[in-house]
Design goal:
- The chain has one domain: Roll (Thiol Ester Dehydrase, Chain A), CATH 3.10.129.
- Helix content is about 15%, strand content about 40%.
- Strands 1, 2, 3, 4, 5 and 6 form a 6-stranded antiparallel sheet that branches.
- The two termini are about 25 Å apart.
- It contains 1 helix and 6 strands, in the order E-E-H-E-E-E-E.
- By secondary structure, the protein is mainly beta.
- A hairpin with a 3-residue loop joins strand 4 and strand 5.
Amino acid sequence: MTDTQATAAPLNTEPSGDVCIRMLAMPADANANGDIFGGWLLSQMDLGGGVFASKIASSRTVTVAIEAMNFRKPVFVGDLVSVHANLVRIGRTSITVHLEAWVLRRKEVQSILVTDGNFTYVAIDDHGHPQAVKAADAPTRAT
């Protein structure tokens, strides 16, 4: 199997890569302490990563693995959450994406990295079967 690889993104002090999704953390997404549930944040990252992977694959994609998730800081109600994607690897049918969730808190000017991890997606056809990813259509790692 031949793979196209880009180096994994180093830990950034500023968001980099493609902005895949941006949303406001709302009270319905919080626990009793006012922190946003990790599962909500993970699902937002998965949605954003799926959009990024589908653009590369020019087809539907499905999540097959999530690895190396790091929950670094809490997310609070009212935080503006942005998910950024960087390409890590393209396999024959799979695409691995490094996703970072950054927040902009009220009355702050600097974004804060709150969560990051590697998500792997598989390109599928209209019948749900894996299909090859055309590496020539893939972007290089965004900086």
